[in-house]
User: Fold these one by one.
Assistant:
Number 1:
Amino acid sequence: MTRGPKPALKARKTPVQSRSRVTVDAIFEATIQVLLREGMRALTTTRVAERAGVSVGTMYQYFPNKQALVYALNERYLDALAGRIEATCAEMRGAPLAEMAEALIDTYWTAKTERAEVTRALYRSVVELDNDALLQDFATRADAATTAMFASAPDMADRDAPTLNLTLAAVIYGTVRNAFERGLSDKDARRLRRNLADMCQAYLAVKAEHHTGAIAWSTS
Amino acid sequence: MTRGPKPALKARKTPVQSRSRVTVDAIFEATIQVLLREGMRALTTTRVAERAGVSVGTMYQYFPNKQALVYALNERYLDALAGRIEATCAEMRGAPLAEMAEALIDTYWTAKTERAEVTRALYRSVVELDNDALLQDFATRADAATTAMFASAPDMADRDAPTLNLTLAAVIYGTVRNAFERGLSDKDARRLRRNLADMCQAYLAVKAEHHTGAIAWSTS
DNA sequence: TCAAGATATGAAGGAACATTGAGCTTTTGG
DNA sequence: CCAAAAGCTCAATGTTCCTTCATATCTTGA
């Protein structure tokens, strides 16, 4: 399913000495900093190199062009994020749906929030056309994990796993992003997060009633 | 509350003859087309002018610079969107919460979907740093309208209007955007939309029980 | 210790763009 | 019908930025 990067976006060379590994990390970090402080429009190769404390040429030893740098940055992040989602899904296999939803919210929210500046910086970099494929791949991978998780729930009744996944995934990911973009106060953020969880619970409970005839949410 | 555009982003001249009104429209339309087909990176003044069938200079008679063009485009769109939300809120004043939520979903979803390409094009243009202010203004305006609407509901009980608004707004706007970005089939889109509505209903019903002791959702 | 490979430098080339302004055409109002 | 205002054109300007490459320095393994 993974499309793999277009040739023009592949890394040019892989660091082998530890010195260069440090360099590449510095370049990534510098990219985030510039993105954060100056925005996508000011993300120039020179500025990144400068902030990373290396020369422009060095950058071009590891990335064939500027786009590839942004691509790699997003790839790194999305890969880690997908990994965390998969871990959560593995851990929650067989749990009740409500707990799964709660755990998913927790994982996603934490991932976006713990280094909020990074998240913000990356949101600014996703305009690049070719990153679309990257996002699609991430979505596919995450959906596979969550759908499988949901399918393993004891209280799935006769629900359709892909549909349930579509709903919960869209609501959770969408809401978290929206919350993020609003720049909420800590208090509001906590409140919203709780309410989002409550909302998923309520939805699952009503569906349960529908499907089993039992009132499930009162067992909290 | 409206910050108003920075001086560098204000329109240079307002069309007075009908000929120029056509021109400005063509420029806006061309901007959308270019954004759609080639992405933000290829949005150059020459390309826009070319597609609009005018010369570059003409563009500069109405917009002091490229950024201002993008700014104006977003402004136009967000203003219309806010207007529609306000209209819905006015119309639903005094209705039950569940109907309000349903109506809000309907308005927002329709607005985003009816000219999906435009929405998609604009999402691609929001990287510009100064558009942040525009989005904030939109959020403020929309939140004012929806909060007032919610406050007028007969079944508000002892809920806190701003908090309820925060929750529903974030969930609805966030989910619609996420749905949009997934490029769903018509069938899946309809399904998700229905489930989102159900979810809001379920949430409101449980809260109602909490607040009034009555089971409200079974009256569907 | 030393040669081969890895890594780093930064000035220079060259393409792509945003923006201007002097001059031309069309519309308007009287 | 005509002068003033509005609208339009496009070649030229100057800047910004990506990318390369010849050269220099550092690291590794034998």
Number 2:
Amino acid sequence: MARKQGSHAGITGPKVRDVALRLFARYGYAAVSMRQIAREVGVQAGALYLYTPDKQTLLFDLMRGHLDELLSAWAEADKGGPPAARLEAFARFHMRYHLDRPDTIFIAYMELRNLEPDNFAEVERLRDLYEASLIDILDAGRAEGVFQVPDTRLAAKAAISMLNGVTTWFREGGRLGQGEVESIYWDMLRKSVSG
Amino acid sequence: MARKQGSHAGITGPKVRDVALRLFARYGYAAVSMRQIAREVGVQAGALYLYTPDKQTLLFDLMRGHLDELLSAWAEADKGGPPAARLEAFARFHMRYHLDRPDTIFIAYMELRNLEPDNFAEVERLRDLYEASLIDILDAGRAEGVFQVPDTRLAAKAAISMLNGVTTWFREGGRLGQGEVESIYWDMLRKSVSG
DNA sequence: GCTTGATCTGAACGCGCGTTCAGTTACTGT
DNA sequence: ACAGTAACTGAACGCGCGTTCAGATCAAGC
């Protein structure tokens, strides 16, 4: 039997990506089988190949899609203004965006080594693009004298590492709310780049 | 044929762990097969089971061994003194220790999800122990008024995230030397917990 | 020189892997 | 009513997986 009712292409396609995202995040790309994905989608394994040419592309599409969205979301959120304000906006945007998409972010940082070289290069390019927007802010602030950092590229890496750290432990309903955590982290970041 | 010459137990055992460490770090636990490990060690797959009961235990032993060493290394490196000095010692120790063992650290942070529940709990316990030593320093500094942090547990997590970040990009022979990077990171950390 | 035990091989076990494809079903357009 | 096509099944392909184990080999102790 096939296709129990109605057209499914518009449903099954996204569902495949959703399920793959969740399973890859939980168990890791290498540990998840196509049959396992198919089972949770509710189809046989063969049907997955109507929506992706292979498993590797499935992973790559998830990563590139994430980075595309991240870049355009920040482009929209960036209101300009003085560097200090832009940095705060960046920090809060980054934490909020990441906390809202834990699975996506987990994959983006953990499954890099499972990308084939070409795919890895493209993902890295997009990541550098995002990092560059933070470096821009730090450069602008240093030029104005409001930030004191010996090396903005290094500071950008340190800042992103710190902000990313939130995603590894924060859980809704814990000791502190998301807003409090955001403020505390922002405060630490602010001081770290100031005199 | 078996055992070409001399006794090998003292050689093969550590070699298995070394190879497993390197391969797990490069390709991920799930993506590395026992046959692949055996090939690089120079034995047949069956021989590995003289040195580990199974693949999972091999991973767990690497992790627990790492954390045991980390804890005792810090216990030895911690010279006490005023909180600011202890924090600097911690930061520099942490970066140096991690940069010296990139493969070990990579596994310790990436393969947690591949640990069975009991093993995970033990690893988490040891990690919390290490984090607690940083929290102690921050608490002491706050009590003396030299650190201004609203939440020492949060600050400890933020600090460790930031310091860990170094390991994801630093390569010997790059734009900056290890000493410079250490100093810049320490400076950012120092400011982030100060008024 | 013989036995003992440590060390390792080589083959095998059942199983699941990613992927392909001929065939089947259910809907759509005419 | 019928053809066409989108969506999917179910079986199969060759292959590698983790693990076990009987047997081979060599070093050491008596």
